Amino acid sequence: MEFTKMTIDDLKQQLNEAKISPKELYNTSLALSKKAHEKLNIFETIIDDFQMEDANSRISGIPYALKDNFSTKGILTTASSNILNGYIPVYDATVYKKLKEAGAVLVGKTILDELAMGGTGTTGHTGTVHNPWHMDRLMGGSSAGSAAAVASGIVPFAIGSDTGDSVRKPAALGGIVGFKPSYGRISRYGLFAFASSLDHVAYFTRCVKDSAILTNILKGQDEYDMTSLEDDNLDYTLTLNDDIKGKKLFYFKDICDPAYYPNSSDETMIETLTKFQETLDKCRKLGFIIEEVSFDKELLNAIYPTYMIISCAEATSNNANLTGIQFGPRGEGDSIDEIMLNARTKGFSELIKRRFILGSYILQKENQEKLFLNAARIRRLIVDKMTELFKTYDGLIMPASSNIAPKFNDSSDRLSEEYLILENHLAIGNFGGFPSITLPSGIVKEMPVAINITGPVFGDKDILNIAYKIEEILGFKGLVKDDFYV
Amino acid sequence: MYKVVIGLEVHCELQTKSKNFSTAKNTFSSKPNENVMPVDLGLPGILPYVNKEAVYKAIKTAMALNCSIPDEVIFDRKNYFYPDLPKGYQITQVTKPVGRKGYLDIVVGDSIKRVDIHQLHLEEDTASLEHFNNFSLLDYNRSGIPLMEIVTEPCMESADEAIAFLETLRSVFLYCNVSEADSKKGQMRCDVNISLMKDTDTELGTKVEMKNINAFNKVRSSIEYEIKRQTAILEKGGKVEQETRRYSDEDEKTYAMRKKVDAIDYKYFIEPNLPPVKLTDSYLAEIKQEIPKLQHERIHIYTNTYGLSLYDANILAKEKEVSDYYNDVISYGTEEKMAANWVITVILGSLNKLNLTISEFKITPLMLANVLKLVNQNEISVNNAKKILYQAMDLNKDPMIIIKENNIKQIDDEEVLLPKVKEAIDENNDVYMQYLEGKDYVANFFIGKVMAKTNRQANPAITLKIVKEELERRKNSGN
């Protein structure tokens, strides 16, 4: 089997049988990294130096990529923003520390949408990340580089962060698995905060089982993160193959049905939704009971604005440490205010400034009640409704995206009625801290499409089990674009 | 004449092992940037971790100030940009401060006044910033140190009341063992809000705020200056501006800093990284139990129950450790007034001379009580007792051991023996008559009598000397 298609387990077997050494594995990955990076623009930093801690775990010796918003001691970390140019952290993120201790080998730190704010992979300070499936198409973001690294077969897994859908959306557009465990399952210590109440550590893998393996390694309580959960001491790989007969899934009524869009001129969207219906049929054949559920349309329409309000507000505060005083490029000026102002004016792109201004406006005393607190209430309503549904259903199954990866110059209005819910519903997983997984479910116009499954909070084990069984019948495990390196 | 209305906002650094939201040490250090963790620098990716000891001590203080305690602990962010605030926000409490609606009784002159506490909340200190000609230096040792803020209602009416409140509040901090509250180390700082109104006015006058005053005497002079300044304005028919003023040490005056119109919107919101922690009844009961009797309660007991003078009571209750010492001495059976005299004159006097604190003092309350028991039983004299105590301090020894080793219990104290000798002579006039007749040897008879009276503990040599002197004295005076 080719390296680019191998899962963690496949590679581990090669290592165990001494067919290849960790160093050779790293070198293969490094060579691919350089090649793919040239084409796609994936990395902030490529680690040109084999470093592996002595360890024996299910991922020891396995190369991986890490989003450049995780603090790595001694390694440049910019969050793809000019405000952090030259910033070399003095401490390790808990996730990075755990991976190091497990013997995983870091190949590179990947580009993101600036400060993880954005869903396109086009706003990082070193330029656009391309989709290996089609150079003219978006990778999606914000964990664009990590998605591209796995989608192009450089590494079997890559770490990202997911605040609205920043792993699960690009996973869909790249034909790979993207898993976001429950809020608190994995420590956020060292992940550069975007919106603390929504931020999750999440990852890209070639298959569901690899996501389970990673969760085993990364989960657990961290004394540096008070929101982290006590370890449930479960091995998530042991229950992947559990029988799912009779498990119940639901999807939102109307919006997932191609017939709901009779006037749509968007062919690929219709085809994507048709594929989704086919996927549901396959799942039913497997033994799932799948039902449509009407969910208050107004609440669903409110997902995007609610997400924007909460995330911008928290982001403006979370990023107030970026003043160039303690670290990062120092601004010029005669007064302290001027120095900070100039550092921030120069350091952030227009898009970021826009979010900060929004966030600041939302938090102003006179707007808090109407905007910030109302958004929190809507979030609560949505989460309560979902939690209620999870009493009846084991999970929500939805198209992860309404469409294949858009082209760079695509000017379609993603806020229009047609896309508003289908493109933004993944944020529900962040609102409630629900475990949520995206997995490839088909090919439309030579591009991958995907489904997403979201379950009740702390139900990580069951969601992985469901996803594993669905992955089996869909047959897209280890999907990569065959001719990418040709 | 105008009525003065004063409200205080007091900041107090809590004494804890580590900082409020990081594991860095919370100690006063002269070496800059020594006690610093990533959290205290606001580095990207850091998360706060609540110091349980700080929460415990803040709640303890809130309880001592008779505040109502919320059902849970949550924190808020106060957002503003300043170089000494590395995260760009301060973690503080707005939604649910750990204490609300409390009070503290203070003694002003002869009367007791109740100062209403608006709230007490827990927050973190900023870094310290030192400005030079064309650069500034930042020291993050202070960044993240747990800080309590106590906000009073505008209810004090004079500098005297404000000072009495601050002193009483400081005693609460010390009694509850939550802070050293040393204003020289900046551990206790104060903002003063002051306004003037006519007696006939129904609404408060315009408030002026004076920020960050460290020493109590500066609080006094700033208030006194402001009263004069505002009175002068009002008397000329002018209007006092609502503003923040800075107190200058050098000329003891206040200067305008910024007008209230520039008031900052701090955009408070609940800190999402610190999940709410419910406060259980058993936890609160545990804290409640840890609160000792406070200064004013002790003074009340000392004067009303023990009959001490207010002056002595104040001295004894000034420091909790001294007061505890005194209470311990009493608990071993020493009479209250006697114990007070000894603790104030001998113990506190010696501590002063030796430059020691009472916790460093080697004479335990039990040791003192034992010595005083002997004094009470006339087994040793007051002077001897003092001598023994001083010796015990010097030798770092139990005074009872010194007594035993030197056989001091055998009474060699002339002050004790003389009255016994006199008694013996008075009671045996016939034998005295023999002495007058020249029979010197009768002195031995009197020694025997004194021995009997002192349970055979009188020093025979000294007793003989006293007997001879007394017999001679009487003979010479013609008795």
Gist?
The complex is a heterodimer of chains A (486) and B (479). Chain A is built from 15 helices and 13 strands. Chain A is an alpha/beta fold and 486 residues long.
How would you explain this protein's 3D organization?
Chain A has 486 residues and is an alpha/beta fold. Chain A has 15 helices and 13 strands. Chain A has helices at 8-16, 22-40, 94-101, 144-151, 168-174, 208-218, 267-286, 297-301, 303-318, 336-347, 350-363, 365-392, 417-420, 427-432, 460-474; strands spanning 43-46, 63-67, 105-110, 130-131, 134-138, 157-162, 177-180, 200-205, 248-252, 289-293, 395-399, 436-444, 447-454. The model of chain A has no long low-confidence stretch (mean pLDDT 95). With 479 residues, chain B is α+β, with helices and mostly antiparallel strands. Chain B is built from 16 helices and 15 strands. In chain B, helix 4 links the parallel strand 11 (208-213) and strand 12. The A-B interface holds A 69-71, 77, 79, 84, 87, 89-91, 93, 188-193, 196-197, 223-227, 313-314, 316-317, 319-323, 325-327, 336-337, 340, 360, 363-365, 368, 372 and B 38, 41-50, 77, 79, 81-83, 86-89, 136, 138, 265, 267, 269, 272-275.
The level of helicity of chain A is 25-40%
**CATH structural fold name of chain A:** Amidase signature (AS) enzymes
The whole-number mean of residue pLDDT values of chain A reads 95
Please report the distance between the alpha carbons of the first and last residues of chain A: 16 Å
- Give the beta-strand count of chain B: 15
